[in-house]
Amino acid sequence: MKITASREVYKCNLFRVTEDKAADRKSGFEIRRSVVRHAGSAVMMAVDDKKRVLLVRQYRLPAGKNLWELPAGRLDPGEKPLQAAKRELIEETGYRARSWSKLASFWVSPGYVQERMTIYLATGLTAGPATPMDDEQIEARWFTRKELQEMIRTGRIEDAKTIVGFFMWRARS
Known about the structure:
Layout (H helix, E strand, L loop, with lengths): L1 E10 L4 E8 L6 E8 L3 E6 L6 E8 L4 E5 L2 E3 L6 H13 L2 E12 L5 E2 L1 E11 L12 E5 L1 H9 L6 H13 L1
Parallel strand pairs: 3-9, 4-10
Antiparallel strand pairs: 1-2, 2-3, 4-7, 5-6, 5-11, 8-10
């Protein structure tokens, strides 16, 4: 498959939308889609020396409620996922990590969104002041593995990146 046409129909600070057409020259098969183009995002699974995980709680407009989730943020232009992870961890929580390792990288919803999300395990933490963006009201709290498992099981954690991060971390340790 090869993209044969693409037209931008919307653009904002977070993403842009294109109407695209792709075709297979051999078979003649075509696909037409509106695609949300996103720079990608980095997710941080900060784990302290007691094996607790740091989650943030903030209001998510599309969900219409506050969600507990792993801290995360969009990649700035030219930024690599690990650079964004380090920057976002400080911004949202104030923590800095000495050690970083990749847990997972995946397409969020590849049917219509071009967003690749990368989750990093951050350890060797040092606390500091958080510097959230003007449109963020963030509450941060530590959770044990058992608490997280129960919150996922009972549906109190509904955020996919947090669920993926938890199970990848659990499989590793």
